[in-house]
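Figure 2 data, in text form.
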Amino acid sequence: MFTNFWRISNSGFQKPVDIIAETVAIGFIIIARLFGGFEFLELYVFDTFMRIRPQENPDERILIVGINEDDIRNIGQYPIPDGKLALLLQELQNSQPVAIGLDIYRDLAVPPGSKELANTFKQAKNLIGVETIVPDISKRKVNPPPTLLSEQLGFADAVPDKDGKQRRALLGASNANDEWRLSLPLQLARIYLEKQGIKLDSIDGDEYGMRFGVTELPRFRSNSGGYIKADAGGSQTLINFRAHPQPFAIVSLKDVVNKKVLPEKIRNKIVLVGIMSPSAKDYVVSEAIKLKNYSKDPLIYGVEVQAHVVSQIISAVEDRRTLLKTWSDGGEYLWIVFVGFAGIFLGRSINSSRKLVLTIGIISLILVGISYQLLIFGWWLPIVPSILVFLCNGLAIAVFSKYDEALRTRIQDRQIVIDSVFETIHGGPLQKLSMILRNLDGDEKLDKQILSTDLRQLNQELRQVHILLQRETSTNGEIFYLRGEQQLNLQQPIHEVLHQVYFDVLERNHPEFKTLKIKIVNFQRLDERNLSIEQKRGLCRFLEEGLTNAGKYARGMTRLDIICKQEQGFNVIRVSDNGCGIQESNREHQGFGTKQAQNLAKQLRGKFQRFANSPKGAVYQLIWTARKFNFWRL
């Protein structure tokens, strides 16, 4: 009863247990991602991909006037006084730029020259000044220059991530008075594109959506790409930094006021004026940019970030340069699930550990390459959880499944051994013992010699049971045991191991081998790329059983054919004789060896056959495909 229960539970619950084990990893990866477990790695990979993109051309439509350390030293005052800024802006206006963005706070006057700067602000209609609308840590914000009109204002608030790096830009947001404001880069892009007849519009159905003509600016969401529950307030977008060590022309304040910058470099350009001095500390960290000298903490000045945002907007509209987009949450998680099941499929399809590792490695590199190429085309995929779930299911779950399968195979083999021992004891020693007891009960004058002979025979049969158990349970890793202490290494080519099994069995003292006159032996290399150690052990048992049956029961045998080779795309192991053949009474009998052979054929997705030879004799044969590719094994 308990044996039957074990068999039912072992076969009936195999599929659900496998399914649960193989989907746990997918569920764990998804849950870990939902709680932000991979956000740091996702952002790191994103930065790396952005940094190693193919180099682009500089954007010649933008000029940066960077006030550097030499400028501050020459002026002898910081902040830069209003008079110097007024002189700079007047020189720029003389060369007729499309727009000027002053990325320097000027909510308070910095004399001398405050009156001149106020007049310049009033006269320069293409000038955009800056303010902040989001309070900083001290809950303070910077007011705009008082003499600029509201349409000449743009905020300069940055949106750093948790690691302090800047990867996204705030394009529009409401201030403390619930008034909608645009950022400095968006204002500059608006002025430039309006000159081309392209206006800034909203997107139907999205109150924060923006577009220029047919070009929509992708909105950043709280779970976009690798982000999890990020602050997506206002209208934000991912920054597609221009991939070039020096993407914009940069000149100094001194060069402009001394007329060393040709008017052609300013005319019809977008000019950004900002501080580019380390002492002013107006910079952010970004590892997504190309630098001439990449350091541990790559710094980019605030005015450069503004230039990158302006460039990506006007380049998307005029040049169809890609903007960074992400899949929906559902699409990303469906992708992770798909990749996870692809890993399960490969792990179950490839039995060779070396091939599995190689295949998983190659496909992982392909996934990384696909993600990189898609990012170049503007799509950010969740690469980290995809690779992790693929590796986990492809390698870890595959190892577990193969161990589980090997364990089940051993259990099935042990069950066959138990059944065989039961049949052997019941059909031999128990019957002999029962006969001896009947003779003792029925004949008080039983001959002692007959009794002694019967007891010796009983002892021999019991010893045979012991030998059977010892052989079938004494498997040690990669070793197959023959008679006595003889061992075969299952790591050797299987056709060589089978050849040694053949030699060993033919040397045994089986009665029908004495009449043998002709032996046709053909051992050739088999396709063993997908054979496990347990399956190799089973092949050795199969050949040993087939030869032993011929030696014991093929009465009158004079010819024995042993074939081990590939035939028409199949591996074949065949033992055929010309003895008395299969008795009709034994044709449907399934003994120990037959059950083992059937179990082995099932594992190999092959076929075991035992049939009559022509014109007489028996054939004992196992066939399985030489190029086995096991599809879904649930």
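Caption note: The first helix runs from residue 2 to 12.
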